[in-house]
Structures are given as structure tokens and as C-alpha cells.
Please model this.
Amino acid sequence: EIVSLVGEYMESLPGVDGVNNHQGSRATADLRVMRAVCRVLGDYDVFFLDSLTSPESVAYNVANEAGLRAAVNSEFLDDATDRREDVEARLRELVETARARGYAIGIGHPHPWTFEALRDFPEFLLATEVELVSLCDLIESEKR
Model:
């Protein structure tokens, strides 16, 4: 059933570069489920971003084992907040993570307060040594 559903979803999204788990903490913590999911994703040459909605997640490791390009979320930008200031603080934390680790991945939602914080974020980045890139670009550069 898992293989069938994931295949159906992938067929409904032609040209997609990658997928992630927006929710599904129980699924990402289950080796059997994630192996089935990643087996199907391998047929579509997509990457998998583990949102890391659970500390018990095995998704990233299973995706790597399956030969998928994979990454893990570093920071949720706007969960449990509706304040631009909170998103800005998390963006600054994300920059510090990127500076320490060499990269960082942030996940946000299409909220007005998130858009407002992101709109002015490039000005903040100019003062740092961090470049804002798409997830596709980051994953492609890691592949090289």
C-alpha cells in the first residue's frame, strides 16, 4: 500500500525535484515505512528532505542507504509563532548554524510574518559570509 500511494503521489507531481515530510513523525521513525518510501523515490531521481519532526526519525539514514540525495532540516522558522520578530531571530540562528557547519536548512510556511521577515533578510545576509541558496542548489553542490 505504501509503495502504491507514494508512486501515485509522485506520478501526480511531474518534474518535482524532491520531497519532504511535513508531518508524519510516526512514519519517519519506522524503518519499514521509510524503506518502502525511499525505494519508490529512487525510481524518480528525487532528493529527500527530512523535516526532522521527530528525534526518532530514521528517514535521512534510510534515504542515504537507498542512494537518494538527502538532507535534514536545521531550523523551523515559524512553527508555534505568528510574530515576525521570532522568525527573524530564527533566521539569525540559522545563519550562525551555517557559519559553524558550512550550511543550514530552514523550513517555513507561507505566513505573512514569515514573508515579511524573509523579504528583509537579504540585507542582513550582506553583513555575513553566508549565501542564501535554494535547497536544490545545496543538494546538488553536496553531490559534487
Q: What stands out?
A: The mean pLDDT is 93.
